[in-house]
């Protein structure tokens, strides 16, 4: 009769497998691009694309009039954002500081893409 209880270790093994899956997902979230900063060439491209102006556009307002001097990761590098052109935007010093490592909302990215068509 005691052998009938051996089904329990099997159950534990299955839940242990689920834990491993969680660890893997966490490792994926912590991935970082080995390239920390945009290259000079990438920055020049961003400047040309944005006409040298900061790309920050507050909701229901016009685009920031300041000169864009810093290449910024739209999705922060520290949170797994790659250092690639599609993830870059040109910001003025003030807006780059203010954004720091916040992840932008999907709405922000969508509005940025829409504004870019009008540059
Ligand atoms: Zn700005």
Please provide a brief summary of the model.
With 119 residues, the chain is mainly alpha-helical. It has 4 helices and 2 strands, in the order ααββαα. The model has no long low-confidence stretch (mean pLDDT 83).
The run of helices and strands is HHEEHH
> Which runs of at least 5 residues are low in confidence (pLDDT < 50)?
none
Compute the CA-based radius of gyration: 22 Å
Order of strands, main sheet, comes to 1-2
Report on the architecture of this protein.
With about 120 residues, the chain is mostly helical. It has a domain at about 40-115. The chain is about 45% helix and about 5% strand. The chain has a two-stranded antiparallel ribbon with strand order 1-2. The longest helix is centred in the first third of the chain and has 23 residues, at about 5-30. It is globular. The mean pLDDT is about 85. Zinc ion (ZN) binds near residues 64, 66, 91 and 92.
Jot down its keywords.
single chain, mainly alpha, binds zinc ion, globular, 4 helices, 119 residues, two-stranded antiparallel ribbon
């Amino acid at each position: 009769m005691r052998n009938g209880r051996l089904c329990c270790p099997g159950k534990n093994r299955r839940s242990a497998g689920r834990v491993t899956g969680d660890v893997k997902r966490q490792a994926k979230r912590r991935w970082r691009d080995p390239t920390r900063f945009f290259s000079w060439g990438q920055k020049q491209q961003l400047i040309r694309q944005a006409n040298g102006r900061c790309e920050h556009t507050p909701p229901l307002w016009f685009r920031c009039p300041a000169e864009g001097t810093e290449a910024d990761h739209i999705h922060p590098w520290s949170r797994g954002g790659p250092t690639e052109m599609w993830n870059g935007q040109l910001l003025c010093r003030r807006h780059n500081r203010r954004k720091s490592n916040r992840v932008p909302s999907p709405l922000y990215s969508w509005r940025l893409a829409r504004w870019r068509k009008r540059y």
